[in-house]
């Protein structure tokens, strides 16, 4: 029993990491249909800027805020200098641009920061919480709570606010959105800002668990993307659930089968889900009305 | 037009060749992974080589001749390493090569160096690089097999007979896992749990819970490098596992204690080099002056702590300079012979005594068994 609980805690910790990255994907995807492969770099920047600002003497909360603000600004820059000039290009080209941006940001981070692995202290100490013979770190609770808060925030944003609906409308048909008076340029800028800020926030929450270095972005982006696909791309509910589910799958496979198979098992399940439910677990079927 | 080309090109080539020759008589090539996934190994190596060449030239070079370093960054890519090795030999015409941060890049460089018969000192761990012995290939780090032996010796002293292993699936972790399983029987130790983790994983409590529940387990060994072992150490503490934890030389740096946290790292043992405990070495230790001098020079110049990996490059360079000095010639054969007859040369990693059959020249005494006590390294004897 305590064993199962420990595997579940392990899965939730890892799952929260994936869910936070997956949530970052949803906004830009909802606004533009583009999967932003620089999302992992936003997470890396959140962690790295916090580490270096903290080392330079800023208290941790301030360093974290600075990291989130700076990363959001980089998100705006990415939109202004890389995505906007390519407006009208097919989605695939835009995705390739984000891959290029991810490589660029990684290279720049390597020069500006360094090539070592870094971390900063957990928010509320390193003493684990004991629950019926199993343990979980307080930082994992921060990450799970953070992912849940972002999910609720995004869900409210997309369903309850005019701005959120404007984002969805822009994604659905840019021209039609413009015709009903939506400032689509603003919507795009907003979505990159929010997405980058969420990524950086994720980086701040998970760095005490995962550590960070200039090259962690790609691995995180791939796992977050897998989580988002499992849950249903573009849906905050899907991103949150998909990320957690992926983490749980890995931990349970590692615990009950063999750690050799944990990646494979997770991807087999994702493939199976996509085969039978191409829109993911929580995705809605999209139909284009003509 | 073609006529001009025909005349100017050879003239230009001769001019370049002449200026090159007048500038530096000894050309040393290097290809390390200063960027890419092995950057935190290769970066201090590149910095070390640049620093040492400057130091050497300031002191008048080798036998009065300046040394020129041609340094390439292969980014951890074995194909690039092969290209750079070829370029070093054919275009740069170097007399010897140092490098190969990882086992993969080392294997690429060694095949080129062996074909061209140019002496090569590798900075990577795997035993395959020097076993079987190749005429022109040498290496400075101890092998992962030796690390396993050193750890198992220590376990024997503590009467440990049943252990669990949790290994990274990266090249280093996988190779050491295999070597440990290969030599474990010689020490009457049984591996009762054998788990792995991906180097990018965020949590290893599932694997550790499995190991913890294995019957009769007395200690845990974690081969791996990068952030994985720090997370394993934290999770170990989180689960309250009260057994000795052994790490590999892959995490032998102060950064490990910092990342894992002082509390979690307390009591962790690993085989490390003298460089890590420079201040704790006995005054009559043959390695003390070498280690202290390198540590001071590196830390003063780059304002970052020395690492074991930079130490490998230091030793490779020291061996090469020693050999070229002793040979008194730039001939590859002469340098090779001089390398093979190195005896009692103190480096940061150990004291090298090579021979025609041993192109590593270190024994288990080069490893010191270290333990984290009060958040700092201490020597276990």
From TrEMBL, chain A:
Protein's cellular compartments: Cell membrane
Topological category with respect to the lipid bilayer: Multi-pass membrane protein
InterPro entries referenced in this protein's UniProt entry, alphabetically: ABC_transp_permease, BCAA_transport_permease
Keywords on record: Amino-acid transport, Cell membrane, Membrane, Transmembrane, Transmembrane helix, Transport
Regions that span the bilayer: 7-31, 51-76, 88-109, 129-158, 179-206, 238-258, 264-282
Superkingdom of the organism of origin: Bacteria
Homology family: Belongs to the binding-protein-dependent transport system permease family. LivHM subfamily.
The protein's name in its UniProt record: Branched-chain amino acid ABC transporter permease
Organism: Paracoccus aurantius
Source lineage: Bacteria, Pseudomonadati, Pseudomonadota, Alphaproteobacteria, Rhodobacterales
TrEMBL record, chain B:
Superkingdom of the organism of origin: Bacteria
Keyword Transport: yes
InterPro entries found in the cross-reference section: BCAA_transport (IPR051010), Leu-bd (IPR028081), Leu_Ile_Val-bd (IPR000709), Peripla_BP_I (IPR028082)
Record's keyword annotation contains Transcription: no
Domain Leucine-binding protein: 25-361
Matching Gene3D superfamilies: 3.40.50.2300
Signal peptide positions (record): 1-24
Swiss-Prot/TrEMBL keywords: Amino-acid transport, Signal, Transport
Alphabetized SUPFAM superfamilies for the sequence: Periplasmic binding protein-like I
Any one Pfam family match given in the protein's UniProt record, by short name: Peripla_BP_6
Family classification: Belongs to the leucine-binding protein family.
Protein name: ABC transporter substrate-binding protein
Record organism: Paracoccus aurantius
